[in-house]
Amino acid sequence: MSIVAVYLLSNNSDHAIVMKTVSRRLLNANGFSLTDMVATAAVVATLSAIAIPQSANVLDSWRLGMALRDVERELQSARLEAVSTNRPLRVRFDCPLEGQFRVVELIGSPAVPDANDGDLVTNRCSESLYPYPTANRNRLRRPNNDGPIRRLAAGTTVVAQKTLEFWPDGSVHADAAAGDPWPNVGSPGVMITLIRKGKSKSITVNGLGKIFMDR
Description:
Elements: H1 3-28, H2 34-85, E1 89-93, E2 100-105, E3 150-151, E4 157-160, E5 164-166, E6 172-173, E7 190-196, E8 199-205, E9 211-213
Antiparallel strand pairs: 1-2, 1-5, 2-3, 4-7, 5-6, 7-8, 8-9
């Protein structure tokens, strides 16, 4: 047998051995064993147990922040409306029900409020008695500038709040149990705090009508 023939046979034999080895490896790597699957499932379960509560906390914080922005926008709107209509407006919380708030126009005046302007008169926020929008805007009758009832996101409540009165000059006033008209809230201002599942955020409104919101 020639040297070339011997070389070819030897080379073919080595090639066959390599191919058999590769084939065996491919067959062995064709799937996962039961042990691999159980271990993978355990890792996924552990990561899910860590990630899901964190995701829920992020979602709750986001919803609380959205509710805070809703209140802030309503306060800004009340101030602008009071200035543009030359009428005093109030923002009342938990009115007519908990978790609801509404901008209402004073039926009387800051110095001489109407009996229905009182904080204890919860039906003043009722849209059935005081509809929005007003069907007939008549300057000889009031109110003409009530806003719609706003609702906080479910699970969010106002734990520190006070009815705020916005005057046509843009200033902010609140009841201090010292009679009418209500005094200006001054530089300390009034804080409105919202809470959701143990988390809280606040808005502060000062006497000039400046509104500061937690970030």
